[in-house]
Design brief:
Shape: globular
InterPro entries: LD-transpeptidase (IPR050979), LD_TPept_cat_dom (IPR005490), Transpep_catalytic_dom (IPR038063)
Protein name: L,D-TPase catalytic domain-containing protein
CATH architecture: Beta Barrel
Pathway: Cell wall biogenesis; peptidoglycan biosynthesis
Keywords: Cell shape, Cell wall biogenesis/degradation, Glycosyltransferase, Hydrolase, Peptidoglycan synthesis, Transferase
Strand content: over 45%
Number of helices: 1
CATH class: Mainly Beta
GO molecular function: glycosyltransferase activity; peptidoglycan L,D-transpeptidase activity
Oligomer: single chain
Largest sheet: 8 strands, mixed
Length: 117
């Protein structure tokens, strides 16, 4: 069973299989005014680009969107790789496209996601 731990202060996403870290990825997180919300969530959608998301195409979300159980928040790729490691988003978790594509191969709908400061 897989789960995700996000540590905002480290700007890292950790993928666990049971209790063991199997992958670690750098991430971009929310700006001070639009912080990434801490808490426990689930993956509720997986949408590869170029499919559309309600409200428009996913081009702003890079190559993949992993929607969280908190509406309007997710883990996604980016077409601005220089934003990784920075406070840049409106609260979402940004990843390099290759990283979010790899992550999407592991996780399923319902995967647990815990976000900590």
């Amino acid at each position: 069973m897989y789960s995700i731990l996000i540590i905002l202060s480290k700007r890292r996403l950790y993928l666990y299989r049971n209790t063991r870290i199997i992958r670690s990825y750098p991430i971009g997180i929310g700006k001070i005014a639009t912080r990434t919300p801490v808490g426990n969530y689930r993956i509720v959608s997986k949408v590869p680009y170029p499919y559309t998301y309600p409200g428009g195409p996913l081009t702003a979300f890079g190559s993949y969107w992993l929607g969280l159980s908190r509406p309007h928040y997710g883990i996604h790729g980016t077409n601005r790789p220089s934003s990784i490691g920075k406070l840049v988003s409106k609260g979402c978790i940004r990843m390099y496209n290759r990283d979010v594509e790899e992550l999407a191969r592991y996780v399923k709908i319902g995967t647990f996601v815990s976000i900590h400061r």
